[in-house]
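Model it.
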Amino acid sequence: NDHLRANGHLVAEVPLQPPETALTLYWKNGKVATTDGPYAETKEQLGGIQILEARDLNHAVQLISQQPGFKYGLGPIEIRPVVDLSEIIKESEQRRRRKDTSR
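Modeled.
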């Protein structure tokens, strides 16, 4: 995690997209293997969460694949894109402006 933090990839908490958007990574036979979808369809609590800043899904796979904990049994790890709230925020600001100008 220190490496991710030092290189500006470890960010913060944000809402996640639905489970069907997930890609799950496994360390198998000395390399990364993937499956589409969440690691498990369960109501069990997740062990933890990391939010990474990555260019795209392939970059996220690369970042996680380089983590020593992942290679030595800390996993599987599920990757999900974060929810883009920019449109919701923009619409909310527009509604507030309309409300303020109608007074």
